[in-house]
Amino acid sequence: MYRIGQEEIDAVARAILSRDFFKINGSGQEVLRFEEEWKAFTGSAHALLMTSGYAALASALIGMGIGPGDEVIVPAYTYIATALAVLETGAIPVIADTDETLTLSAEDTEQKITPCTKAIIPVHIQGFPSDMDGLRAVAARHGVRILEDACQSAGGCYHGRPLGSIGDAGAYSFNYFKIITSGEGGALVTNDRTIHERALIYHDASAVAFFGSQLDGISEPLFGGREYRVSDLTGAILREQLKRLPSLRADLKRGQCTIAESLAGILTLAPSHDFEGDTGTTLAFRFESEAETRRFAAKCAEGGIGLTVPIDTGKHVYTNWTQVMEKRGALNPLMDPYRMEANRGAACDYTPEMCSKTLDLLARTAYLAVNPEWSEADIAHVTGVLADAAKG
Hints:
Elements: H1 6-17, H2 30-42, E1 46-50, H3 53-63, E2 71-75, H4 81-88, E3 92-96, H5 106-112, E4 117-120, H6 132-142, E5 145-149, E6 157-158, E7 161-162, E8 169-173, E9 186-190, H7 193-203, H8 232-262, E10 282-286, H9 290-302, H10 322-325, H11 356-363, E11 365-369, H12 376-390
Parallel strand pairs: 2-3, 2-4, 4-5, 5-8
Antiparallel strand pairs: 1-9, 6-7, 8-9, 10-11
């Protein structure tokens, strides 16, 4: 969480005091208003606010018609929720290497496509844009869908287009650790009417037909789904958080760009598909070896600046996706995608070494988390510590 204050408190109080803060109401309609505002912000035709980024990913995949017998390509470096959302549909996650930016490699994605591949999920990890031009070209050649995992990249862009709005659908997270937050929360956006209708039904299957006019104009038949609905308390907070997003990103980029420019020729930044468009939350430094990376991080720690070596980030690295690597997709074996007859022969021969390029890059990268509250003096101090650490 970066910024939150009295405005969010007042918004929640307004919703509570209305005594009418179920999603469908005649008072504030905070969820519905946020969805309209998020559509405008992302330039999307449809938006659905729900409980989490995971919920948005799963609902989008269901909206795309993904299910048993299908494969969905995910990057080797992303939070485990990306892969688990695929399993929720009954499909199989296929794990592909990243490129030098630590986002999904278009080249390896194409190598991993089979006749069963129905979608690919580029993840804009740490707010770094994926190679959307390359991935869209691959998807077009093979007739597969693109679901952008923009859970860590609200407010970022790829060549001027909001991250999450470029593929067939996009998913965002608003949990406590994200750029804007409601504690928990997520959203799905799409320009595809069918994806939207199916996701609407799936994410609120037990109530969408019984409250308000949510099914007006919906042509997709009702089917069983999940319960990912949120209340107006979530919507109220996010409406205020969205107002903060432009200035928040500007302050993140200010710190990020100043440090990057000051260290040019001293440290090597990891490549980017659009440095100007990324969220500004992180600076990624690249080294020749893991030993050099860790020496640099240790020197920075001595100077009071903590860095992260992403190979250490647990469930963000595919080797630590226990449920996936050990092929336990559900408690009941009859509901486990790995045991379904439709998935016999799926490309899921997972091994710890299968994405060795990604593991190497993760071990040779150091992340600096940018603080939007840094003053010019703070930025100068951080830059100095990094420069001194680079000297060895």
